[in-house]
Structure prediction request, 957 residues.
Amino acid sequence: MAIGVASGLQDKPWTDPSARPYVRIEGLSKSFGDVAAVTGVDLDIFRGEFFALLGASGCGKTTLLRMLAGFEEPSSGKIYIDGVDMAGIPPHRRPVNMMFQSYALFPHMTVAQNVAFGLQQERLPRREVADRVRQMLDLVQIGGLARRKPDQLSGGQRQRVALARSLAKRPKLVLLDEPLGALDRKLREQTQFELVNIQEKLETTFVVVTHDQEEAMTMASRICVMNAGMVEQVGTPHEIYEYPISRFVADFIGDANLFDGVVDATGTGSTRISSADVGDIVVEGGGAAAGAPVTVMVRPEKIQVLAPEAPDPGFNTGEGIVREIAYLGGMSVYHLELPSGKRIQLARANLMHTAETPIGWDDRVRFHWHPANGVPLLA
Amino acid sequence: MTGRKPWFALSLLVLGYLFLYSPIVSLVVYSFNESRLVTVWSGFSTRWYGALLQNHQLLGAAWLSVRVALMTATLSVVIGTLSAFALVRFGSFRGRTLFAGMTMAPLVMPDVITGLSLLLLFVAMEGVLGWPAGRGMTTIVIAHATFATAYVTVVVQSRLSQLDLSLEEAALDLGAPPWKVVAVITIPLIWPAMLAGWLLAFTLSFDDLVVASFTSGPGATTLPMEVFSSVRLGISPQINALATVFIVAVTAMVVLANQLTFRRRG
Amino acid sequence: MTSPRKPLDGFRDRLCRPAGLGRTVALLIPYGWLLLFFALPLLIVLKISFSESLLAIPPYSPLVEWVDDATLQIRLSLANFQQLLQDDLYVVAYLNSIKVAAVSTAVCLLLGYGMAYGIARSAARWRYLLLMLIVIPFWTSFLIRVYAMIGFLKDNGLVNNLLLGLGVIDQPLAIMHTAWAVYIGIVYSYLPFMVLPIYAALDRLDPSLLEAAGDLGARPWKAFLRVTLPLSMRGVIAGSLLVFIPAVGEFVIPELLGGLGTPMIGRVLWSDFFANRDWPVASAVAVAMLVLLVVPVMLFDRYGARSLRERR
Prediction:
């Protein structure tokens, strides 16, 4: 899994409590009739961020984006962009441009006319418009297609036109609705990095909506995981993956093994949890009251298989029978059945290309993981 | 497709086209007949076309029909496009069901009822308001626009409802105020439908006999009314010539329209 | 990815329901027009159908009258409707209109379905031309096509000359001014209205459905009955209504091609109005015709209007 290659920000403004957010969302809610699409969202987005709204279909991320663009009126709550309250400001007066999921290229205009459209609304001089259009088309590397009509372009080219058009006005905020959703896998991976490069070059603030967690992890400086109209967690890709704060986030991002248990004893810097599945589990950190229910999350690749050797002292250990083996090329994933009947996953990198695998079906294997790799989830 | 040659359908096809075209072809052929007796061939001649050009009554009626059709088509496109917007975009408003019903009902109203009811309206209005004073071109245009609008509405509505809403959102998002979005995005995109509606309205108006007969007054005789009264008296070679001009014009128009849409798509 | 969105929220509030004034004007123009020139005239027809005939201008009695200053008197006369029921002419004309329209629709359907099917299954390069040959009569003047039919059917017209020339008959067939001529004329005039919606339905049919039927063992005719026909039903209904409804009220064709033996209701209305100048009876005929058309019109509302929209 690719983690956080992108971060256009040298310092991390979200860690500085005195930093002024560029986009501030306060208590934002939106309901359609009696369906609540977005409920009580608070978010701060900083200048130059590549901010991803991540969630499954219907989680409210698109509605949130459309409220930023001004297409939906919030039922309650406030949106400030660069300190200005956006309430009552119609979409055509907002310093925000959007790249649509369907691209929404005007079919009766050429590529150049599409990109020029926003600039012409500002009544810029003709020469300046032409210059800026050329710049933008060069930026997205389709300078030669200026006179084509959208229906003469490939999917990838259309995506670039849509991007150029949304950047042309140098908006304070660029909103991207599933910007890579319509591209095939290979092109999508390549375009991810390009999008990040463009964003860093322009130093514009991007808010991108996606349902693809890898895409969000690759591109975003921070990710906001949404579920059922609410924010589950906001953090860097690393934080989201390594320290999810809820079962939902742990499950939604990557694969997770979840062990339910009860706090047994709290020591200094570590907590012991008793679990029906693997006995006692030790995790780092303290502060939880004894007897509190807790779930421990461990990522599959953080669990090591012990073939003959003994577990390291201080590690959490367990035992299970191999029920499934999924060979994925770079790695293999083993599904283990624990004595309690619970199934867990563990991943091993295939470091050598010899086909010989030390672990086979129905083998009984022992495994262990470092206490630092178990994340206690209270929710 | 699978299966054998559909002989049955093929023979119906041949029969159908023969049926559709042999009366038209014979009409065209006999328009070039020398003889006044329309059915006896006595040599090629274009004299009836010459006579047509001399027939001031017919030409006057044709000119009136052209003007009526132009006005009808334009008026219908304006009202029909507004109706289509109301139906597709305004969501629910008070009296929507009535409105939707009224926009479609003229499609299925027999001509005689449309004609009769509008005439009765004009007579009643004249009695109460003093307008329209007598009947003529104005009343024909109003009557024609009333049923032609329904066709325009259907055509424009279908295009408008297929339009991707995000195109207009994108224009708005790029800073165009709503009126401008309608002017530079929506209208250009539904323009082919508006043009098709205009042509349909023009044809319907130009072709109408029944409604015009009810709603016209003395001195306002449209081409179909003129043709109808002369056809009632029997076949006339001049009408053959006129019909030929008509058929050639329509064929040219259909071919041209198809070429245009074909090229645009290709 | 879209969140559940009701069609009337948010953005639509703004762009689709443009700020008060523009929207109101855009709605009021067509609404007002239709109320004034469509709904009101029908109410007037209804009103006059309950009036008494007068030798005056306008030639009907007022329905509502002020008697002695303050008494409003409403007089509903059912005489016109009684006349419709009692006078054979009207009853016969109504029944005949329905019969003519129904038979013509059936013939149109048979011929039109065959043609639409033939066009849909023809090679792509032919289909374009065949379709255009249907569209041209569709746009050509109705009156002129009826006129062409006169030249085709009359005693010394094309059909009779051909049959005489071939020696099939030795006396010209008297087709003109008979019910035959009316049937032929209606089928001829309305055939394109049947072919186009059926073709549209057949054209949308996925050919792999027929392949699947064949693959599952259905013979071609069985595949046609079980797959093609049901899936083109919408086009069949739309086409039938597009022929039946106007054919019931048809005036031009019975007037020019038919004779005295083929009374049709549109023609009766016309002569009541223009020849007899009996506006109340003409109005009553119109009201009765509308009542007659209620069921087919409701069907049209369900199937026809949609298919008409899809066709263009």
User: Anything to note?
Assistant: The domain at 87-277 of chain C is CATH 1.10.3720.10 (MetI-like fold). The CA atoms of residues 170 and 249 of chain C lie 37 Å apart. The longest helix of chain C spans residues 88-121.
